Amino acid sequence: MTSNRNVLYAQAGGVTAVINASAAAVIEKCKRHPEVFGKIYAAKNGIEGVLEENLVELTHISECQLDQLKQLPSAAFDACRFDLDPLEKHPEQYERVLAVFRHYQIGYFFYNGGNGSMVTAQKVADYCTEHGHPVTCIGVAKTIDNDLALSHCSPGFGSAAKYLATSLLEATLDLYAMHRTSTKFFAMEAMGRNAGWLALAGGLIKTQMLDVPLIILPAERLFDEKKFINKVQHFFDTKGYCVCIVSEGLKNTEGQYLNVEHIEHTEFKDYPQLGGVAHIIAQKVRQHFDVKTHSAVPDYLQRSASHLVSANDWAMAYGAGKAAVTAALDGFHGVLPVIEKVSDVPFVWRFKNVKLLDVADLEKHVPDHFLSKDGMEITQAGLDYLLPLVKGERYPPFKNGIPDIHPLDFPLLPKQLPPYQIDRKRVSPI
Amino acid sequence: MTSNRNVLYAQAGGVTAVINASAAAVIEKCKRHPEVFGKIYAAKNGIEGVLEENLVELTHISECQLDQLKQLPSAAFDACRFDLDPLEKHPEQYERVLAVFRHYQIGYFFYNGGNGSMVTAQKVADYCTEHGHPVTCIGVAKTIDNDLALSHCSPGFGSAAKYLATSLLEATLDLYAMHRTSTKFFAMEAMGRNAGWLALAGGLIKTQMLDVPLIILPAERLFDEKKFINKVQHFFDTKGYCVCIVSEGLKNTEGQYLNVEHIEHTEFKDYPQLGGVAHIIAQKVRQHFDVKTHSAVPDYLQRSASHLVSANDWAMAYGAGKAAVTAALDGFHGVLPVIEKVSDVPFVWRFKNVKLLDVADLEKHVPDHFLSKDGMEITQAGLDYLLPLVKGERYPPFKNGIPDIHPLDFPLLPKQLPPYQIDRKRVSPI
Asked: What is the complex's ipTM, to 2 decimals?
């Protein structure tokens, strides 16, 4: 009788405040099924760690470390921007993964990443299976962008949304106190290259300030400067001030980004690095109205805010890890457990498995009915959608006045295979 | 027998997360001494509200509203950038204040603002007294900048410091996870035009990550680009990444601001609006090392973060309000209760009264021994100073997933005096 097949878990793409809760759930649940799962490994830096054999073993992780994982933002096993090339282009990458999987007797591959990288993970698992080493691949959902198709929402989004809404509310109170004598316009930038979900989350401040003069500029809508200026004028006239939340990926009516910070060139593609659009928006208002403006760019702060984790979002991230292992136990392969809403009041949700290939190239955008006719305000339907996702607080422990969080030290296993070097020039820099 | 003299409270200058705790304390304590204090008023927008007779009455404020005040960030009675001109230049401003004070029988003036405006408040009180209407003026300390001289620290600073340290720690974990495959440098901007205290607060992340490759660029030290680049190089070589916190008011070796966003011209002075220096620092690193960088500008978020209030800072802000009323009860005039440290372990502090004129033009800077020899790291002495100030959490209540905070509605009293118009052109736009 052969021993049980081992488990490999890896993280890829941009981090979230709750992705490590998913990691903890995968590890916990696999440990509870020793009749199925053998050793538990994690790769450092996603698929890169597999290729380069940078692995850690978690089979005997302590309860204490699991608890630390559950409250640690960012990616405990390090993120990765690298993805395998198509099989026909670089078959040696697939051979290498097969060699590593065979050596470590990996039979289950849980990949916590973006759609694209999870599909690659499935392809590599299929490749292994076809070459006589069966591997089950299950995706674990995560993204702050909330653009995961077929899912009610994405684990990671709720916490980033809670951070942005809280921050915008607090800054709005600041502006409110200053506007009669000083700053009259404030713009805050939200992440979101193609999807405006995080900008939409700023709309939540309406639940505390019903009539707040707030303009939302989501990535999905082209920026019509004239309409925007008119709306600012309207709010100046009626309220005396105006706040704005804008997607980093806002484009003008010609379809060009308002602010490309820098363009990174790679073998296959140019990646524009975005940033500072809030600043540009504020500048336009200052120049047009001759008023004092301010702008904020929270950048990484919004996706790593352990101190503003949404309890519901955390439960979804933790649940996503459990659901992935359940899917493996149920004999699935090439699936991603996504969130299905069961009822609105009370807010009830569960996981259902969808095929990774079915969600691969889909992007979920903010639907029209979540935005007002002019595309610059949130509707009640939008609020109703967002409210349950940001609900509940889950504070990390504090030490010395700041969150008691720090990188966890998982020592790398000694390498046993011949070295393998990744060509880093073609890694997406985003 | 004449009735008791009435109280006027006002707020001026930039807001903090805890200034309203001072307001609540002043009101509470005055209410408890009806044998001394008559009605309690607050002016909207500081001294502007006095001139324009924009007053609210707080004598019968409810316990519920006081509780709301205690957790509300920003300035509940609206901030003010206006200051009275010298008496010899615009005596009519002083006459107007006297007229308002006389009409409302104001005998106590509690001014919660910056040094400069508190001195003006004293001058105006003296003017009233000299003209037969005795007014006691007491300052209430507040500033996130921590540059208040003669005080161990400033109420408002600890919470902003806690916010910045927490944010930088979380972003550093993000960078840590990404740096092997993506972003290698992250810079965050802290407020502080002339004082680097808030940038120094970033150093607190060393209590969680002892060997963190952190560069601090406080406003007090001129930016030596070569030394900075060498230090980044050192951290890249030894750690593979580097984080940086920089004062908005950083100047180059020629003494010029690295980034003047915009210059506002007024009758008396040009006010450069600063912002975006973190971005410039990140750009320099990207250009020099050809690595991916990110930067964050929290702007108003750092001074309004009700969700990251330091319990010790809150106690100081609340205590500052109480101490001001105590000073009035004790017969003082023209004083400011400042914080005096009594012992380090346990951290014990109390208030002592200093003369407003003695602190007026002093600015407290980060002392040399809080910084390493190269001026870019924090020392143990610096950490020892900061730690008690950020200690303790004091979360606001949450509603709908975000803090349950919103502007409080204090209706303006109907005006009873002839109207008075302020010349807004000469108001400092900072």
From this structure: 0.95
